[in-house]
Task: structure prediction
Amino acid sequence: MPPRKTKAPAALPDYAFETGEGAPSRLVCGVDEAGRGPLAGPVVAAAVILDIATCPDGLNDSKKLDALRREALLAELEACAEIGIGIASVEEIDDINILQATMLAMTRAVAALPRAPHIALIDGNRCPRGLACASRAVVRGDGLVLSIAAASIAAKVTRDRMMTALAETHPGYGLENHMGYGTPAHLDALSRLGPTPIHRRSFAPIRKMLSPALPEGLDLVPDESVNLLIQKNY
Result:
């Protein structure tokens, strides 16, 4: 009987993109976000410049790590990396749409770094306009680029903490469990309690709860934003 083939473990992100851009002599930051898809709460972005000599082991796309591991890795990153956080509010999401709000949060994250980077590596297929440095988009970068993986962890943990705090001021929705995503439990709570000020009124089904006469579909979120959400698996 031939031996069973074992599946090789998935490769972790590495530092090759950063060195290709001149790191560590040039400052290279990775940028990612958390919270594009939820029905409630802000979108949060993080920018991270790593010191590869002291970088913690196990950095990966935040979606591939459990909450305890993300928290532990962020604590290590805060001791050895430069981190900037940018936030776009629910009001900004509803005003300029989720795609533009995400770009705004990323711009703010890069601006919040202690030192201005020479280049930003952005997770996804487009870069924010108006960055004060060069930029490069890397599709699925959170699974390829070490500094983007670090940024994905920082953004996710920061947003989860914010949603847990919002759960205390907006009880009954289970925000501390689903972090604002459109889970069955969240949709059930919305049907019973109605939307709050932290719910995104430009998103279906929130807008339809407020304006039932609107036609079905996701026309409330621009097509380019919906495509971006699908691409990100959110």
Summary: The chain has one domain: 16-231.
